[in-house]
Design goal:
By secondary structure, the protein is α+β, with helices and mostly antiparallel strands. It has 2 domains: 187 residues, no CATH class; 135 residues. The strands form 2 sheets. It has a 5-stranded mixed sheet. A hairpin with a 5-residue loop joins strand 2 and strand 3. Helix 1 packs antiparallel against helix 9. The longest helix is centred in the first third of the chain and has 32 residues.
Length: 400
C-alpha cells in the first residue's frame, strides 16, 4: 500500500514537470509570434474597466462609432445572445439596431434613499423606440449594494447583462431578489466576448485593416487575462498528456483531490504574513482569523473600539471595511465619516465598505495564491487597516 502511494506521488511529480514544460513552450511561442506585444498592455490599460473595457466594447456596440461598420458589431452581439439560448426577453428580436446608440458610464440620476433606482450604468444601448440593453461590466471591481436592482428598474429594459471574466454570478447584495435568466443574464469575457469578437473577425470581410488589427489585439489581451491564451491548443495538449496513460489519469485525480487543501495552506500563509506585518506596525489591535471556502476571513479589533471592528472577506473579490457588531441603532452614521472614504458605501451590517480592485485579488485565478504575492497582498491589507484606523483618529469624538 505504501509502495503504491509513493508510486502515485512520483507519477504526479513527473506529470507536473511535463505540464510545466508544455506551459513554458507555449509561453515561448507567444513571445516569438508577437502576441506578447500588446498596445493595451503597454499603455497600462489591461485592468481598467472604464478606461479600456467598457469604452472599447461600447465603441464597438455603437453603430455610429468610428469603426464605420454601422450596426455590424451590435447585430453580431445580439445574435450571440440568441444563439447561446440566453435571450431572456422576446423583445430582443425586435430591438432596432439601425437606430441604436451606445453610451458608456450613462447616468440614470442620483440613487434614491432605498437604493432601488438611479446610479451609473457601465454600458447602456438603446434604440429609437427607447428599448434598452444594459451591461454591468465587472472585470475586477466588486458589486455595489442593490446595483442590479437599480438597473433592473429601468423602463423598457430589454436585457440586463452581468459581464465578468468567467461568468461569475452577482452577489446577493447586488442582485437582491432578482432571478438569473429571468431578470438578468451572466456573460463572461472568457467565453462570450471572445466568441463574439472572433465571429466578428470571421464574418467581417469589410473590416478595415486598423479595426481588424485593433480587435485582434483586444482578443489577445482577453485570452491572456482569462487564461485562454493561444486559443485552446495548450489546454488540449495538457489534457492529452494527463490522459496518455492510466498512471497519468490516476495522478491527475490525485493532484485535483489536494487543490482545496493547497488553497487553505496558501490562505493560512497569506494570513501569517499579514499577521507579522501587523505586529510590526504601530497599530494597537487584536486579530482574529477564520478560513472560508475561498479566502481567509480576517477580523481586526482596534484598541478602544467598542461597537465596530475591521473585516476582510471574499464576495466576488476582496471585500473590506468597518463592520458593526450590531446592525440596529448604529452609534455612528456613514455620513459622519464619508468625507474621508471616497468610493466606500454603507450597508446595514457595515458602517463602510469597499473592494480592493487590484487584479491580484481576483480570486477566480490562481494568482492570489502564489508565494510571490504573499508580501504584496499583506501590504495592501495593512494599508487598508491604516486607512480605516486613521479615520477613527480623525473623528476621535465619535463612539467607535
Amino acid at each position: 500500500m505504501i509502495y503504491k502511494e509513493l508510486n502515485v506521488v512520483s507519477s504526479a511529480t513527473e506529470l507536473l514537470k511535463r505540464i510545466s514544460e508544455i506551459k513554458s513552450r507555449y509561453e515561448e511561442s507567444i513571445g516569438l509570434t508577437g502576441e506578447a506585444f500588446n498596445v493595451f498592455d503597454i499603455l497600462g490599460l489591461t485592468t481598467k474597466e472604464v478606461r479600456l473595457h467598457s469604452r472599447f466594447l461600447g465603441g464597438l456596440l455603437h453603430p455610429g462609432g468610428s469603426h464605420r461598420m454601422k450596426d455590424f458589431f451590435l447585430k453580431e452581439f445580439i445574435a450571440h445572445l440568441q444563439n447561446t439560448g440566453r435571450d431572456i426577453s422576446q423583445n430582443l428580436s425586435t430591438f432596432d439596431t439601425t437606430s441604436a446608440f451606445a453610451n458608456v458610464e450613462y447616468h440614470l440620476g442620483p440613487a434614491n434613499k432605498e437604493m432601488t433606482s438611479g446610479g451609473r450604468v457601465d454600458i447602456l444601448i438603446g434604440d429609437g423606440e427607447r428599448r434598452y440593453l444594459i451591461i454591468e461590466n465587472k472585470l475586477y471591481a466588486g458589486d455595489q449594494y442593490n446595483q442590479l436592482v437599480r438597473y433592473n428598474a429601468v423602463q423598457n429594459k430589454v436585457a440586463l447583462i452581468y459581464l465578468t471574466l468567467q461568468g461569475t454570478p452577482p452577489s446577493e447584495s447586488s442582485a437582491g431578489g432578482l432571478t438569473e435568466n429571468r431578470d438578468y443574464i451572466c456573460l463572461s469575457y472568457g467565453k462570450d466576448i471572445l466568441q463574439w469578437l472572433n465571429k466578428c473577425l470571421a464574418d467581417g470581410t469589410e473590416l478595415s485593416g486598423p479595426v481588424k488589427y485593433t480587435v485582434q489585439q483586444y482578443i489577445w489581451l482577453l485570452e491572456k487575462i482569462t487564461g485562454n491564451a493561444k486559443n485552446d491548443y495548450m489546454s488540449q495538449e495538457i489534457v492529452t498528456e494527463m490522459t496518455a496513460a492510466d498512471e497519468h489519469i490516476e495522478s491527475s485525480f490525485f493532484i485535483a483531490a489536494h487543490i482545496e487543501q493547497l488553497k487553505e495552506i496558501r490562505g493560512q500563509a497569506i494570513f501569517r504574513t499579514f499577521e507579522n506585518k501587523l505586529s510590526g506596525s504601530s497599530i494597537d489591535c487584536m486579530l482574529n482569523h477564520k478560513y472560508s471556502e475561498v479566502f481567509p476571513w480576517i477580523e481586526i479589533y482596534p484598541a478602544g473600539w467598542k461597537h465596530h471592528y475591521i473585516a476582510f472577506t471574499d464576495e466576488n473579490g476582496m471585500f473590506f471595511g468597518i463592520k458593526r457588531k450590531v446592525s440596529d441603532n448604529p452609534v455612528i452614521k456613514f455620513e459622519q465619516i464619508s468625507s474621508h472614504l471616497a468610493g466606500f458605501r454603507s450597508h446595514p451590517w457595515w458602517l463602510c465598505s469597499s473592494y480592493m480592485t487590484t487584479p491580484r485579488f481576483n480570486l477566480s485565478t490562481n494568482e492570489p495564491w502564489l508565494q510571490k504575492n504573499e508580501s504584496y497582498i499583506a501590504d495592501e491589507i495593512l494599508n487598508c487597516v491604516r486607512l480605516l484606523t486613521g479615520v477613527s483618529k480623525k473623528e476621535d469624538k465619535l463612539d467607535w
